[in-house]
Specification:
alpha/beta, Alkaline Phosphatase, subunit A, 2 domains, 10-stranded mixed sheet, 15 helices
Amino acid sequence: MSMIFKLFFIALITLSIITNAEERRPNVIIFLVDDLGWADISLRGAPFKTPNIDSLFKDGVSLNRFYTTPICSPTRAALMTGRDPLKLGVAYSVIMPWMNNGIHPDEHFMPESFQKNGYQTAMFGKWHLGHSQEIFHPNQRGFDHFYGHLHTEVGYFPPFSNQGGVDFQKNGVTINDQGYSTFLLAREASNWINSRNKEKPFFMYVPFLAPHTPLEAPDNLIEKHKDLEDTRKPTRNISADRSRELTKTLAPSARPIYAAVVDALDQAIGKILTTIKEAGIEDETIILFSSDNGGATYGGGGADNFPLRGGKGDTFEGSIRVVAALKWKGKIQAGTSLDQIMTVMDVFPTLSSASRINMNNTKMIDGRDMWPAIMEQEEIPLKDDIYFVSEIPNYGHFHTTVFNKKWKLVQSISTSLLEIKVENKLFDIANDPYEYHDLASQKPNLVKEMAEKIRNWRALHPIAGTRTLLVPPPGWRAPKDWSTYTIPKDELQNDASLGFGAHAHQILDSYLIDHGRIIYDCKPGDWERGKCKVPKKSNTHINE
């Protein structure tokens, strides 16, 4: 009986260990880099070494058709929500310092779901999803800990300022840490990993500034890459190639300093990867690596997207198809690839599925769970065609696209006070991924059909959403310290403001047709069918 009892006891302990191992959820790390070119890792032939980034591709799955939006803020909005950023009002442009918008508080962010499922959460780097009110702040969107910058283009060295105002904080409080920003982010992320609560899994988001302009790097790396020749081939985007040629006569090539910035980025990622290994949690950690959009190839930008066409800001493949990989040691087969279309909107449901957590969003997401495709090569159909748009940098000049597995329409729309010009390019993207052969003249009916899809899609954009405003309103002044610019939550009203004419929102919304939406997150005509959350009448009376 004693021996039987011992065997039973051993079996019980073994079962408990196995059960606990099965229940233990993985850590999640997202490395989001800024404006990295398709060809700018050594694994893809870059003329500089990126061994640590390369390791994520060698040890994991290469996401060969991973798509983001053409510019920063929309990609980050899609990543955090799993939703189409056009519906959120953040699509045409990034959030500029003089803008007061962010992502609607009704939207649910990915770290909020991880937080509610028992994860500790932290962010290190560039936010770029709202800075004017505390409700838009990272600490209000699911991050227990935030170290970094609310804006873009704060520089790589102190004082880390935007428009002359300091933008470097820890959880809402300005800090004065000294050093090179890429290395500071890696140091803080590593320290946080080592000091975390080891009884709980963690979700960590590291959106680096690098290699976004203005390009700056430590002196030793500048010296290391100073003789790098610029051998990049044309992008086949006329305006980008023209600006690059013009810049050659005014300044030296940005390619050497860009290489130095990417070198530092690779070292920083290597430091975090080493921290994970030394902590003994490499096989417990999912790591996603991606750029937020294609590389900046225009004058002053040092990136290379070849053989893809175009670059940041347009809607050719070089702008929206980006370098991306996913690693989970011992789970994802090393050195594999996924050739199915995956977008930044798919990240939230995919990582939730991989981590076995419940998503707590109430709004319908646009992303898909791609985990079965990654693990089992299961074919995951698209929910719908995929759409992207950018109005950067020229106001009233829109770069749009709609595509599926087979066809892609690239549409350029230029508007002035008196005319609109539309240029359509149609590609068989399945057989012509580098967009050499424009088939628009051969298939006019298909062009018309896809252009109409773009028109209907753009009608979902809130009329007060982002537009390209490269300069501030006349007379606007920046704060000396951006942390003081953020209005505390307890100084704000409880409900989102409806603006003027709140009593007539439904009527006004129906008048707009394809110009955009007044009622947030509502398709044209849906309020009439009871499918939208109709704003309440305002108690404020306006003398009209």
